[in-house]
Amino acid sequence: MCLGVPGKITAIYDASGLKMGKVDFGGVTREACLEYLPDVQVGDYTVIHVGFAISQISEEDAMETLKLLNEIADIGEELGVQPGEVKA
Amino acid sequence: MKYIDEFRDAELVKKTVAEIRRVVTRPHTIMEICGGQTHAIMHFGLDQLLPPEIELVHGPGCPVCVTPLEQIDKALAIAARPDVIFTSYGDMLRVPGSGRDLFSVRAAGGDVRVVYSPLDAVKIAQQNPDKQVVFFAIGFETTAPANAMSVVQAQAMGVTNFSVLVSHVCVPPAMHAILGSPDSRVQGFLAAGHVCAVMGYWEYPPIAAQYQTPMVVTGFEPLDILQGILMTVYQLEEGRVEVENGYPRAVTFDGNKPAQAVINRVFEVCDRKWRGIGVIPASGWRLRPEFSQFNAEERFDVGDIQPEESPLCQAGLVLQGLLKPDGCLAFGKECAPEHPLGATMVSAEGACAAYYRYRRGLEIKD
Ligand code: SF4
């Protein structure tokens, strides 16, 4: 129930006074209520929970996180820890 | 899929694990409070990648698991009424009440329907004016914006045959209860990312300070979880106690203000019983009196409920991180997903179900 899923907004419209939208989850489209994200636009990515968009995903922050992980990982390598040592 | 695949990148996972191994010098016990994260950890085997110094204990963040038995029994009583269409999130249907579940009510002729969104329940009420439509409004802060909006929407549209059976729980009071317990072994917390997406994480710094316990807001993909662990381990190794955000792409300090406003309009704080754990003060939400005409507990007289829990089930200990599911004597024997004794064996977020699915010891045969 807490497993929100990231999806891309493909349409925005009004239904019974609520801001609603179509959200694409990698090919599967569902309706979601966008009332809690007043500024969200078509093309934005959001986290959807039980039919409600609760958070807009920040592309910039996503990139930053990945960059950060890449960097710390590289430092680890320089310090002599080989990823290959880890049994996956 | 965007925002999923990048955060499952195998090379980066290996590198992050290597970094955790590099910085760890002594044992640390870290709790992931959210059951969704428990499942991700088990599914991807993340706990097995970690160095032996790090122990993950699983928290009570499974909404289905902690919904008190009395509320399940009330749901069963209401759902069995011939004038009622009972609607619920799918996870609730198999949760054992005292002796039966919503599935068996449906099998006996009750009109029990699974909805994806609580707004669907309002629609069903509009389409069935001669029936009473009840929605089982359970969950943590993640479902509260949706559940609250269903009441606001029913009111706005004048839908009078709709009501909600509310059983909401909140994370911060549970953190207090866990960290304040003399049995607690938790040294660091992975705070639940999607709870924080709604509520922000401004409530956490005083808790972290009071119990000297680092916290990191953590997402749900393998890299998110490993990053949360890494950031927690950095803090523990350096002796820092802070609340950090490891999931900034979806979470801000303040959270979603419009959602918080609707939650506060519809719900008020109350003491709430957590299944298997007991009453945690000020740990839940109930409908405000202004919305009492939508309160299913007031609309239906369900008589005297005498809840009865299976004597074998130790889910309360599991939910507090005091017992691993496979430490329960009934695990995989009397208790399995097809015949669960406790709610933790049912839900997609329950720890017992996660162990059963991904980590059943070879010695346990069906
Ligand atoms: S394995 Fe079953 S009986 Fe044991 S604690 Fe988990 S849900 Fe309860």
List descriptors.
heterodimer; A: 88 residues; alpha+beta; SH3 type barrels; five-stranded antiparallel β-sheet; 23% helix; disordered C terminus; B: 366 residues; alpha/beta; Rossmann fold; 2 domains; six-stranded mixed β-sheet; five-stranded parallel β-sheet; 16 helices; 19% strand; binds iron/sulfur cluster
Explained architecture:
The complex is a heterodimer of chains A (88) and B (366). Chain A has one helix and five strands; from the N terminus they run E-E-E-E-E-H. Chain A is of the alpha+beta class. Chain A has a five-stranded antiparallel beta sheet with strand order 3-2-1-4-5, with no helix packed on it. In chain A, a hairpin with a 2-residue loop joins strand 1 and strand 2. Chain A starts with a strand and ends in a 10-residue tail after the last helix. Residues 79-88 of chain A have low confidence and may be disordered. Chain B is of the alpha/beta class and 366 residues long. The radius of gyration of chain B is 21 Å and the shape is globular. The two termini of chain B are 36 Å apart. Residues 362-366 of chain B have low confidence and may be disordered. The interface between A and B is large, with 50 and 63 residues. The complex binds iron/sulfur cluster (SF4). Iron/sulfur cluster (SF4) is lined by residues 312-315, 318, 325, 328, 330-331, 335, 340-342, 344-345, 352 of chain B.
